[in-house]
Amino acid sequence: MKRVVLYSMIIFFIFISLSYVFAGGKWYNNYNDGLKQVKMGNWSLAISKFDQALKLKSRDVKRIKTYGMHFIEYFPHREKGICFYNLGHIEKARSELRLSLSQQYSSRAQEYFAKLSDAPVTKPPVKRKLPIKKTPLPKPVINKPSQMKLVGERMGLAVLPFQTKGLGVEIGEINIVEQMMTTLYKLNRFKLFERTQLEKILEEQKLGMSGILDASTAAEIGKGIGVDAIVLGTVTRSGNNIAIDARLIDTETAEIVTAQDEMSNRTSIPALKQMIKRLTMKISQDLPLVEGYVINVSGDLLTLDIGSSKAVKKGMKCIVYREGMDIIHPITKKVLGKQTEELGQVKLTEVYPQYSIGKVILIREGMFEIGCKVITK
Predict the structure, then answer these.
(1) How far apart are alpha carbons 135 and 140 in whole angstroms?
(2) Which of 79, 105, 108, 329 is most buried, by the most CB atoms less than 10 A from its CB?
(3) Per-residue pLDDT tens over the stretch 61-111
(4) Architecture field, domain 145-285
(5) Domain segments of the chain: what residues?
């Protein structure tokens, strides 16, 4: 009887192990084969292997389970970007590396992304495509904040001091945080946490103003002051070259929302100001205001007609609202706009090219229905 039980347990564990292998082994084997091809310099073959892995596991992550209790680093987008870099396909390399950095920051991706600024661009051959007739859904709108009707609160941001490396006295005459916040304020895109209050909090926690590199610490500070995301980064000088790297950290998950950089071979104050301005604009453009519609409701999950083709990302928050009666001027009788009723907020959990799925995280009033409008926070 004991032998029967023992054999049954052995068969059970073998079955479980095989289940792990068949469930995860295919993507893992393709990814591992791709890494082997990278070492041999077979860039095109490596890309095909990474593409096969991405069909099953589509995000770069620092730690992922393959089978049993075995975990590995998984960076298919980063490795594809490096392959494209070596093939001379610079725009494709930049796209893959930027995607990798937005999903999971790594110094290897950042290193190759920095190399792209001086790399020659190889334009791919133009392919002619036959026109395809489609019946479009209501089109989402990306626009400037000044041209849009803002509903609810904007995305809350706080800019932490940047860490500096190898800089001379010239940087002492410019406040990176202040310059960045000035540009952000003029964009009317974000709700900013006041700089002097943030400095006071950092001093109270004995963190000083030397710069905070740890994402989890930054997220904890941001969550404590009630903002959606924290901006932090580094300013590095090497010879006559200066590079600024910035990351936007989600305060709830400590994940990188977007990572941007700027470089210059000039160290003057005007040049540094322009670098900071360009960097800030990149961050804003990577988090656009996008309008769309609710196209399906299933419990606390809403399907929205906005997706990655409109620069929408997983983890972004959207405000759901309903438009009401016209607001009419009592004298001129001119229609000034429409009343709005904020219904609540959703956080995007799945993002596809043409649509996304959002989970309800806040309910204010009313019901979520098909046809309600949404706007990214």
Answers:
(1) 15
(2) 79
(3) 988 888 777 789 999 999 999 999 989 898 899 889 888 888 888 888 888
(4) 3-Layer(aba) Sandwich (3.40)
(5) 9-118, 145-285, 290-376
- Tens-place pLDDT, residues 13-61: 554 444 444 444 588 889 999 999 999 889 999 999 999 999 888 899 9
Q: What is the pTM of this model?
A: 0.55
* 175 Cβ contact list (under 8 Å, min separation 6): none
Is 9-118's fold the same as 290-376's? Answer: no
Strand partners, 261: 245
Q: Which residue has the tokens 């219904």?
A: 343
CATH of domain 9-118: 1.25.40.10
**Fold of the 290-376 domain:** Thrombin, subunit H (2.40.10)
Q: State the greatest distance between any 2 C-alpha atoms of the chain, in Å, as a whole number.
A: 94
**Residue 119 confidence (pLDDT) above 60:** no
**Tokens linked to 360:** 């309800």
Q: For the chain, what is the mean pLDDT?
A: 80
For residue 243, count other CB atoms closer than 10 A to its CB.
17
Q: Is 271 within 8 Å of 171 (Cβ atoms)? A: no
- Buried residues in 305-314 as b, exposed as e (16+ CB within 10 A): bbbeebbbbb
Query: Stretch 333-341: mean pLDDT, rounded?
Result: 85
The tokens describing 139, both together, are 């089109």
CB 317 within 8 A of CB 346: yes
Q: What b/e string do you get for 343-372 counting C-beta neighbours within 10 Å, with b at 16 or more?
A: bbbbbbeebeeebbbbebeeeeeeebeeeb
